[in-house]
Design a protein that fits this description.
Length: 219
């Protein structure tokens, strides 16, 4: 199952108070490695933007007035996240808006069973500490220099790095164990080729090469 890192920006704190989504971003990964597939939309909320919200994300009512409304992008959004694990920081907030908007136009809701809340994961790992996205980025030495305003697409990318660190999985895991390889061959009785033992030094060089390539291409 692929993953989707998701974030939204809104006109306020609650859909129930009449606030709306102004930006949705989703970044797809497979085993936490970027696939290159992104869903990103700026949305016309068809209402004013309170000054407090404008200070957070910088989107004015005038700027958003010519953008698509939520009902125009909903099908594309649902198709993008369908059947994927969805990772959100403070999921209750984003799901409240997404499912509120979807319900209002009689669309399927986002399945909560597919959602992982990275905030809950952080709280279980660092109880009593500040676990905002900014705080976690600082804790894990993740570069925040581009985050002058809240931006859903940038926050998805930051969240992916945070989530990898929360899982203590700083890079995809490759199984280079000769033992497991040999065991698979033994189980397959039809395979009669001789197993070649690779020197330990060459294995270490291969591991270093993979780490360098991952950092160069994905981080």
């Amino acid at each position: 199952m692929n993953e989707v890192f998701l974030d939204t920006e809104t006109t306020g704190l609650s859909f129930k108070d009449g606030h709306k989504i102004v930006e949705i971003a989703c970044v797809e990964t497979k085993d936490l490695v970027l696939t290159g597939r992104v869903f990103h939309k700026l949305i016309n909320p068809q209402r004013d933007i309170p000054e407090e919200a404008f200070k957070v994300h910088g989107f004015s009512q005038k700027f958003l007035s010519d953008k698509e409304t939520f009902d125009k992008v909903s099908d594309e959004f649902l198709n993008f996240v369908k059947g994927k694990k969805i990772i959100i920081h403070n999921a209750q907030f984003d799901l409240g808006f997404l499912n509120g908007e979807l319900k209002a136009i009689n669309k399927d809701l986002v399945d909560k069973k597919l959602v992982i809340d990275s905030l809950e994961l952080a709280r279980s790992k660092f109880p009593g500490a500040s676990n905002s996205l900014d705080s976690l980025c600082k804790k894990f030495n993740i570069d925040l220099s581009k985050r002058t305003k809240h931006n859903a697409l940038l926050d998805c990318e930051l969240l992916r790095e945070v989530y990898i660190n929360l899982l203590d999985a700083k890079e995809p895991k490759f199984n280079l164990s000769l033992n497991s390889f040999e065991q698979n061959i033994v189980k397959n009785k039809s395979y009669n080729k001789k197993v070649i033992n690779i020197p330990e030094a060459e294995l270490e060089m291969h591991k270093d090469f993979i780490k360098k390539e991952l950092k160069k291409n994905f981080y």
